[in-house]
């Protein structure tokens, strides 16, 4: 029986030549998370996981969600919320990350207190978004690693070299993405990670590249 798939730093450099040091360190030292949560069990799972990671993290160059949008862009990204179709005036939210995050994420995704929308904005390799996702990643990770941080209490821990790969592997597992990857169903994987199919075309392109790297 073949052993776990190991992602080399050479492969990271091939796919993401501008990868941030924190992410390179995580892949260099913390791949036990991928083995623990079954992601490393097959090349197909690794390919799907990495395709989603590379999309969500902008090829390992993004740690926190960028919420600085022009007024024109806001109407395209959230058409149901902003003029002309939605109730909000995009000019009031352009280039204001805090106000925007609280408007578009507040009152949902488990965000039940003032300021939660911004506090639990997208972070990390799979861009955890919303208090519920931070709690889900915490519970899954702590079930195997009791010393793991509480990401709800300390959202910035999602960005640490020690725990960023664990947070991503945990939310992947909690959302049953290994099973979707086994079926080679990128639409289902994307829906479970994203809540929709935003960026599906780019995720497909990443998957073609990652499958080429890991030969499946």
TrEMBL record:
InterPro entries named in the record: Cell_Wall_Dynamics_Protein, Lysozyme-like_dom_sf
Gene Ontology MF term list: hydrolase activity
Protein keywords: Hydrolase
Protein name: Glycoside hydrolase family 19 protein
């Amino acid at each position: 029986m073949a052993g776990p798939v190991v992602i080399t730093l050479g492969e990271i450099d091939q796919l993401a030549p501008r990868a941030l040091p924190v992410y390179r360190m995580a892949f260099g030292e913390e791949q036990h998370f991928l083995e623990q949560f079954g992601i490393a069990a097959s090349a197909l799972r690794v390919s799907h996981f990495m395709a989603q990671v590379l999309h969500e993290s902008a090829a390992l160059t993004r740690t926190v969600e960028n919420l600085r949008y022009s007024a024109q862009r806001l109407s395209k990204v959230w058409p149901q919320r902003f003029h002309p179709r939605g109730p909000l005036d995009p000019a009031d939210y352009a280039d204001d990350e805090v106000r925007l995050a609280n408007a578009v994420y507040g009152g949902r995704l488990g965000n039940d207190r003032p300021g939660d929308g911004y506090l639990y904005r997208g972070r990390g390799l799979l861009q955890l978004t919303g208090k519920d996702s931070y709690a889900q990643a915490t519970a899954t990770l702590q079930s195997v690693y009791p010393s793991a941080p509480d990401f709800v209490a300390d959202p910035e821990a999602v960005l640490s070299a020690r725990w960023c790969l664990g947070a991503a592997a945990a939310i992947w597992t909690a959302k049953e993405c290994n099973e979707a990857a086994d079926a080679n169903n990128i639409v289902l994987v994307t829906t479970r990670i994203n809540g929709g199919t935003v960026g599906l075309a780019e995720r497909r392109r990443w998957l073609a590249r990652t499958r080429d790297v890991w030969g499946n």
